[in-house]
Known about the structure:
Elements: H1 10-14, H2 24-27, E1 43-45, E2 52-54, E3 59-60, E4 62-66, H3 70-73, H4 76-88, E5 93-99, H5 137-150, E6 154-160, H6 162-166, H7 172-185, E7 192-200, H8 206-219, E8 225-229, E9 233-234, E10 248-251, H9 271-278, E11 286-288, H10 310-322, E12 327-330, H11 333-336, H12 354-357, H13 361-373, E13 382-383, E14 398-402, E15 407-411, E16 417-420, E17 428-434, E18 441-448, E19 452-455, E20 467-473
Parallel strand pairs: 4-5, 4-12, 5-6, 6-7, 7-8, 10-11
Antiparallel strand pairs: 1-2, 2-3, 9-10, 13-14, 14-15, 15-20, 16-19, 17-18, 17-20
Helix pairs in contact: 4-5, 7-8, 9-10, 10-13
Amino acid sequence: MTRTYPKLLLAAFLAFTVFSCKDKKKDAPAPEAAVETTGIPRLKISGNHRFFATEDEKPFFWLGDTAWLLFNKLSREEADRYLEDRKAKGFNVIQVMVLHSLDAANVYGDSALVGQNVSKPVVTPGNSLDSKEEYDFWDHVDYVVSGAEKKGLYMALVPVWGSNVKTGKVAVEDARKYAAFLADRYKDKNNIIWLDGGDTFGNEHTEVWNTIGKTLKENNPDKLVTFHPRGRMQSSDWFHEESWLDFNMFQSGHRRYDQDDSERKYGEDNWRYAAADYNRKPVKPTVDGEPSYEGIPQGLHDPEEPFWTDNDVRRYGYWSVFAGAAGYTYGHSAVMQMHRPEDQEGAYGNTRYWTDALNDPGAIQMQYLKELMLQFPYFGRVPDQSLIADQGERYDYQTATRGEDYALVYTYNGRNITLNMGKIKGDKVKARWYSPRDGQMQDIGTFDNTGKQEFDPPGKKEDGNDWVLVLTPA
């Protein structure tokens, strides 16, 4: 990247360009990129505290994609391509690490910090999104955030990944200054959501995580804040009653039933996390922010294990949302790490390039979940397992959600659905099958809304032959 100053003088130059959170108005040039707005509505918690809504009271179904290393590994042009693809596929939230590591640098070689200290971001004066002159790490973040905003996409940003805090390299006061820097820089951006934490335990270095969360919320009271926890954990384990935590996030993780060595042993039953959060007080929305990624080994670390597929990511999506979650985050192994031809080796056995994996089946199919949920009155939806008269376990498990005048029931493997009728309005109901694989709806017929009724999904019973039974008053 072209510079207006010699690279060899960078170290000396940085001493005059480090942002100081102690005296922001005096020492820090206001970043030009941070004040551009495009009218994307701010997000808030819905009136019943179960869901997300826009500031103009419209339903917002969180459909996230995991792009952890976007700021580090993609150029401007590549970032534009990625964001445009995700917009076209119906995603509306992009989850990204700001600092994957304390020596983080972007594709142009720009370092984020001086001396790997989070309180000392490297910023340069006179920066502009329209010019590649004097373009630093934070300008690149600005460029991507602004580009996402123009496309109607929200950026869920992890300030610093948990492993950096776990090693003791982030002091509490440095964390406060860094969080204040981020909050000030992006205070005018409507499309920012803050994800405190980052694949970590909230009962370790709790003061750091509370400091970041409180500082972000105090300085950005109009932006949503949550905590991204360790696998098979949930933010509510530690922070549910904290005032800075607007909604919960859980990471159901990448392990099979037989690989789960946690105390809970939920295995693949991510609906259990959603149900637990749904029943907590005070009421807050919840989202599975990291289920099993498409294209990653079952168990995560052994490439000799089978890889998770589109069937699995659909199952996690419908299970958690029907259990009460306010949305769902999809992930793909190649995309979350933005694996490129110039990378020597992919993590977790990945051999795919991110550009190829963009169009894997799961990424295409996620939009059908969002489209289905937005077809019906949104804010009155509740999970209701009392609909199901013949419940199964594991892959036979069926999950149900409903409003006053509709009901949705999900089967992962095409097992017959037997319902207790009379849970929605009407003497008779119209029944339809909805395919999570292509978003197509097909009529079944009209049925009495009393007693028990059994519905036989199309096709044979097998994993991945998933269907949603849709009931509405006839």
